[in-house]
Amino acid sequence: MCLESTPVSNETLLSIKSLSVNFGGLKALSNVNLDLHKNEVVGLIGPNGAGKTTVFNCISGLVKSDSGKFEFDGVARAFPKPHELVDLGITRTLQGVGLFNELSVLQNVMVGADKKHKPNFVKEILGLSGKTEAKLVQRAEEALAWVGGASLIGRQPSELSYPDSKRVALARALVINPSLLMLDEPAAGLGQDDIDALASLIKQLKRRCSILIVEHHVDFVREISDSVNVLNFGKLIASGSYDEVKKNPAVIEAYLGHTDNPDENSKLGA
Predict the structure, then answer these.
(1) What global pTM score does this model have?
(2) Does residue 182 sit in the same domain as residue 270?
């Protein structure tokens, strides 16, 4: 089924200005600016070690910035701490699947509603009212249905294929109905059919939230992104549509090294 494209809002959801991070003497990020509008899918790409995951980790409070300004949904504030993300409506997936083997698939998704993502969170809520527990179960079931994982509800993580494990991890990120969904290499390790299904899902999800994606699969980025930001050695070297940035000489050099052949950018996607 061909879905109509959801228009990008003029309202800015996330704005980061002059973000810098140092790891010892290494400049991991240097004055990075990033804007994300409501109902927008933004790709964050670049060679290995460019600083993409460090940007994610700053937004999610896993890495402390040395400088920079953070604004979310029109409110200027400090970069959030991990336990503040759920209340803000920010959620992310990890490069690794990160499921808890001692919990069922449904319980793993329920953990996404916890501010600290503790595996014993499910046991803690069992002591709450039946209404509270039932509401969370319903949200987890709905999140699994969104990602095509309704049939996985009664299973254990050890029984899942890798693509199904990634579906569960995505459902866990969606259980809070986020405003901002951050996906760290969601297409990694998937076959083409699963990548195509993921692209279709993301196009549907942008109707509900804004999405920031770190990904090495350039054809996938081109398919799903409204705009793309390119990092290299911790600096933002290009921003714009995918077709615009792939022709940028700085981007071509970052991926391929210096080249005088304009056709070389075909390696970044036709």
Answers:
(1) 0.87
(2) yes
